[in-house]
């Protein structure tokens, strides 16, 4: 497949999706202050961001609301309290995890909601359930995505079958998700080509959600966009679970579209991100996340390692190695 653009190309089809609240919420259980959320919303508008993901539409039957901030659940009124009528060019998105959302109860008609797009996170083996949510949300008037998580663990035959099934559905965008931060640019190119072939066949968009375990989230994002991937996920200062994600300020500085501006995000970082770090919130590249990425494993062991304040990296390496054999 020929590249769709070079490093200096202008791509009007590119959409930047800010996932700071949703992926960052996995670091602090979604306990962001109202000022943080409102200022992030304003910074995204001023920076020209296309979508802002507020968090999850999680089931209040499955999750104790006292243990999480409101962006774990994204009640429409909580979003309205931030965005009002949202008379801006910024669209609002939320994520619904298969098996963890009461979508029929909690997602109403688009005409009565501030939300524009519902992103459905799924594994290969739960795609039929993901398609049920997508069909429901599409009929309600929402834009939809399917985000196939842990794609680095999927074999080619299963992935091909899954993409064909998704391609025939009503979903608007299909996401490549490097959940474990284990993939390299060459692998991402091959995946992008596979996904883009389905996109061309069925008229879909393709997105990328990268994790930074091996410090490749930005590299993988721009590698896939040159292939034709157009929906680009990022978080401010890479704020996200474990090693974090592609940094929004880094991505905006790279893109050649004059609608994007990094100054508002830099001001937000000064006002809020530095404070989170001073308060002791920990995220971003570190040796334990490098190792789970290297072994293509979920970062939960690395997250626990970091919480315990351990530095016995060699022992941790052998622990992960033993899990592989």
Please characterize this protein's 3D structure.
With about 325 residues, the chain is an alpha/beta fold. The protein has 2 domains: about 15-280, Aldolase class I (TIM Barrel, Alpha-Beta Barrel); about 285-325, no CATH class. About 45% of the residues lie in helices and about 15% in strands. The chain has 13 helices and 8 strands. It has helices at about 20-30, 35-45, 75-85, 105, 125-140, 155-165, 185-200, 215-225, 250-255, 265-280, 285-295, 300-305, 315-325, and strands spanning about 15-20, 50-55, 90-95, 115-120, 145-150, 175-180, 205-210, 230-235. The chain has an 8-stranded parallel β-barrel with strand order 1-2-3-4-5-6-7-8, surrounded by 6 helices. Strand 6 (about 175-180), helix 7 and strand 7 form a beta-alpha-beta unit. The longest helix has 18 residues, at about 185-200. The radius of gyration is 19 Å and the shape is globular. It starts with 14 loop residues before the first strand and ends with a helix.
Radius of gyration: 19 Å
Beta percentage is 5-15%
Share of helical residues: 40-55%
Strand order of the largest sheet: 1-2-3-4-5-6-7-8
């Amino acid at each position: 497949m020929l590249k769709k653009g070079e490093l200096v190309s202008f791509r009007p089809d590119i959409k930047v999706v800010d996932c700071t609240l949703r992926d960052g919420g996995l670091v602090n259980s979604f306990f962001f202050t109202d000022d943080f959320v409102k200022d992030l919303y304003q910074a995204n508008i001023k920076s020209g961001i296309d979508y802002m993901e507020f968090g999850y539409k999680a089931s209040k039957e499955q999750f104790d609301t006292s243990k999480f901030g409101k962006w774990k659940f994204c009640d429409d009124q909580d979003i309205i309290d931030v965005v009002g009528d949202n008379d801006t060019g910024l669209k609002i998105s939320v994520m619904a995890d298969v098996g963890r959302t009461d979508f029929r109860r909690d997602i109403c008609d688009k005409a009565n909601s501030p939300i524009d797009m519902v992103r459905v996170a799924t594994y290969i083996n739960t795609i039929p359930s993901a398609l049920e949510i997508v069909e429901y949300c599409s009929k309600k008037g929402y834009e939809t995505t399917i985000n196939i998580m842990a794609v680095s663990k999927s074999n080619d035959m299963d992935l091909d079958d899954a993409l064909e099934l998704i391609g025939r559905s009503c979903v608007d965008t299909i996401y490549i998700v490097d959940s474990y931060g284990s993939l390299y640019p060459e692998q991402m190119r091959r995946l992008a080509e596979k996904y883009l072939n389905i996109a061309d066949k069925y008229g879909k968009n393709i997105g990328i959600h990268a994790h930074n375990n091996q410090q490749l989230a930005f590299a993988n994002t721009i590698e896939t966009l040159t292939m034709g991937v157009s929906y680009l996920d990022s978080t401010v200062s890479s704020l996200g679970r474990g090693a974090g994600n592609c940094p929004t300020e880094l991505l905006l500085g790279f893109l050649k579209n004059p609608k994007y501006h990094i100054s508002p995000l830099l001001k937000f970082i000064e006002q809020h991100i530095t404070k989170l770090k001073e308060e002791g919130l920990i995220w971003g590249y570190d040796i334990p996340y490098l190792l789970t990425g290297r072994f293509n494993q979920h970062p939960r062991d690395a997250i626990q390692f970091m919480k315990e304040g351990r530095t016995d990296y060699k022992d941790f390496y052998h622990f992960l190695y033993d899990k592989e054999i």
